[in-house]
Amino acid sequence: MVIYDSVLKKKVPFVPVSDNEARIYVCGPTVYDDAHLGHARSAIAFDLLRRTLMALGYKVTFARNFTDIDDKIIKKSLETGEPIEAITKKYTEHYLRDMHALGVLDADISPRATEALEAIVDMVQKLLDNGCAYRSEDGTVWFDTSKDRQYCSLSHRCGEEEDTQARISHEEGKRHPRDFALWKACKVQDVCYDAPFGRGRPGWHIECSAMIDRYLAYKDKAYEIDIHGGGADLFFPHHENEAAQTRCATHKKLAKYWMHNGFVNIDGEKMSKSLGNSFFVKDALDHYDGEILRFYLLGTHYRANFNFNEEDLLASKKRLDKLYRLKKRLYGSKCGTPEKHWQKEILDALRDDLNISRALAAIDEFIAKANEHLDATPKDKGFKASAIGTIAWIDTLLGIGGRDAYEWFHLGMSKEQIVQIEALIEARNEAKRARNFAKADAIRDELSDMGIQLMDTPQGTVWERVQ
């Protein structure tokens, strides 16, 4: 497989640290609010990476953290009066609920900052002991960037014009503008934990380094993990700082490869809460099924910026409908062995830095060829079984196409409409059992007038809304 390494700024062959194994860490959410489309984009991008590596035969261990102690969380608690634990529990559950709706697989490891305090304290202590960190008068522990000769070797963004940290007003106790807090000293109305170097709480950057070292790292290799991922906005300073901490604390490199997904724009404007156009996943799910959103977000290459608009979303849904229309033609067929040709075509595309456009084009071609074959030989059971197997394999790889084909075309209908339709279908079935075929036909005509098409199968009567 070939992936784009953000540090080298080019595609490189993926050669794992340990044979046939891939350890991946992706920065997760700070749980003080609901997940937005930026979170969804990142989660789906790295879910695709994970699924692709698994399909290629790698043993994948995937970790995504939850930041459950942070300035934003504390601020929200003070503003609302809600306990911090209640806030973080609620929004962690909301995040997982939304990701499940989008078909994102659960992480193998989901560390939380408050559960990793021992690992965090140990790493801060190591950095103090080896002189790469210092303690200011108020008790805050700072990372000394001047002690790391490789600082900014990841992003190369430490020039005066790009150094966002240097533009921040000089915080009291810092020796250098780029230094950052490893452990924040306890203040009034703060959350504090005991540590040998004083009561306080972790800085944001240290938690990821400590969690990787404790829960995921190769202990006998030059790199702690294979791939570190996240949004492009995290590359600097967050990932830069993570890499520096790990180098200085463990004398190892944090990750062999760094991967970053692009931003999400809404109608061309970069998503930002300050701009008032943040689009929560839960709001999108109120209007669109999670699989439709997944397919739409999946359809743009992960490194490209994504422009979210409803016109493109609806066009994407129609493309996905074609897969389900094929599946409907195969309804009731047994699931057989996937067609190797299409497996190769689709996987070869994804081997190339997750080239989703090429992969989806291969799926479109599979659908077209399958329909042609069914038109010519509609009773070919072996072909039907293979086609169903291919669709099931696509679902495993991409997280699409796994639903019941007829239920898919019920989407957008109210519960009341579905109850009414199914009641009429049951009345038709009863009429047929009573051999009252005139009544059964009348009910079918009534449903047809409502835009409902019926199909009687060995598994029972299924229906679709004809659009």
CATH top level label of the largest domain: Alpha Beta
Q: What is the share of helical residues?
A: 40-55%
Average predicted confidence as pLDDT: 93
Number of strands: 15
CATH architecture of the largest domain: 3-Layer(aba) Sandwich
Strand content: 15-25%
Largest sheet: 4 strands, parallel
Name of the CATH superfamily of the largest domain: HUPs
User: By helix and strand content, what is the structural category?
Assistant: alpha/beta
List low-pLDDT spans.
160-169
Please give the count of helices: 16
Q: CATH fold name of the largest domain, please?
A: Rossmann fold
Distance between the termini: 41 Å
Rough shape? Answer: elongated
Concise summary:
It contains 16 helices and 15 strands. It has 467 residues and is an alpha/beta fold.
Question: Which descriptors would you attach to this protein?
Answer:
467 residues; alpha/beta; Rossmann fold; Four Helix Bundle (Hemerythrin (Met), subunit A); 4-stranded parallel beta sheet; elongated
